[in-house]
Amino acid sequence: MKVLVTGTAGFIGSHVALKLLARGDTVVGVDNLNDYYDVSLKQARLARVQAQAGYTHVHADLADREAMARVFEQHRPDRVVHLAAQAGVRYAAKNPHVYVSSNVTGFLHVLEGCRHHGVQHLVYASTSSVYGANTDLPFSEHRSAEHPLTLYAATKKANEQMAHSYAHLYGLPCTGLRFFTVYGPWGRPDMALFLFTKAILAGEPIPVFNEGRHKRSFTYIDDIVEGVVRALDTVPGKDPAWRGDHPDPATSGVAPYRLYNIGNERPVELLRYIEVLERCLGRKATLQLLPLQAGDVPATEADVSSLAAAVGYRPKVSVEEGVAHFVEWYRRISVCECGAARNGKLRAACVRSRANLRRISAGSRRP
Question: Residue 263 has what pLDDT?
């Protein structure tokens, strides 16, 4: 099977591409390697994927209509996993236009490519952030999520609605996955685990919002990837039980469409997360306790029963295991644990990554 994966230089996208290649699929990857955070980390991720047989990379921007049309015309994928997007919840306050360009216009170009080239199934990334002001835990995709608190979340909610319209109008099977907080090796340097690890090792204080009392469904990357691939293999149809007078937001009676939560069912308080990290690093953190940030929510908790019923998905990796794996990767990146010695291109990328690790760890990005 030929699969188009967008965002293959990204955290989740690179892992998904590797999983698909390992099982024998052909993968066409799209990424523009933007500089939201240090590009050398993206280059190192991409080098791992490019080292595998069966991978073709296309450097393109989702918002470039002609470029995306060429991708579909030239490569004609059987299925698509759309993971590329402008990430980051708070960055939208500084640069809102890039979110609409990448996450809305870019998604339209993906939908159009799927529509015109007979793609069998589109799986796309949404986010738990769409639940916004909802406080009914655990979050269920079968309940309304009409009050996002950030522009990032609003663009992802728009994706879900756009996908349903294309599924209805053109019979394009679409599956949206609402990701809960994803962490692990090769993760984003603007995420808490990366920032906390860097600060603790440097003896610097770490900012802890809501005084560390908020909870998150922290989900290890391998569990996420397993769920994404299983969802890709499960093409949705119309739901015969769906009712227009009591509509279920997660399914449809008029379109081959599904929405699923994908995350860990056991939320962990941030202070506990930090304790696990301290134990793995063998060092205590200095906590700078701060109030809850604007647009943030006190708790997330994933109800993944629907995804479990559909594809047999259940997260397996505990926070203790996952954080330990991340710390091992963080410490070993300086000796290229990814196997760079066996591949010149990979070695060169990892050398760049080593040379810039401190800058990457700081989460540098465009102002």
Answer: 96
DSSP codes joined into one string, 64-94 = -HHHHHHHHHHH--SEEEE------SGGGGT
* Those residues with Cβ within 8 angstroms of residue 165's Cβ, 6 or more apart along the chain or in another chain: none
pLDDT attached to residue 360? 43
DSSP alpha helix (H) spans, 37-150: 39-50, 65-75, 96-99, 106-116
User: Does 138 sit behind a cis peptide bond, omega within 30 degrees of 0 on the bond before it?
Assistant: yes
Per-residue pLDDT, averaged over 254-265, amounts to 97
Is there a catalytic annotation at residue 124?
no
Q: Are 249 and 169 in contact (CB under 8 A)?
A: no
Q: Are 115 and 128 in contact (CB under 8 A)?
A: no
Bridge pairing between strands 268-269 and 215-216: antiparallel
Q: Kindly name the residue from 91, 152, 257, 273 that is annotated as catalytic.
A: 152
Whether the CB-CB separation of 367 and 355 falls below 8 Å is answered with no
pTM above 0.85, yes or no: yes
Are residues 312 and 306 in contact, defined by beta-carbon separation less than 8 angstroms?
Answer: no
Which bin fits 126, alpha (ψ -120 to 50), beta or left (φ > 0)? beta
Share of the chain above pLDDT 70, in %: 91
Beta-bridge mates of residue 55:
27
Q: Burial, 341: exposed, middle or buried (Cβ in 10 Å; 0-12, 13-18, 19+)?
A: exposed
Per-residue pLDDT reduced to its tens digit, 12-49: 999 999 999 999 999 999 999 999 988 999 999 999 99
**pLDDT above 70: residue 274:** yes
Distance CA 55, CA 27 (A): 5
Report the Cα 52 to chain-centroid distance in Å: 22
> Are the C-beta atoms of 41 and 362 separated by less than 8 Å?
no
Please, what is the Cα angle at 103 between 315 and 357, to 5 degrees?
65
- What the block records as the tokens of 265 is 């069912």
Would you mind telling me the total number of residues written for the chain in this entry? 367
Is the distance from CB of 252 to CB of 169 less than 8 angstroms? no
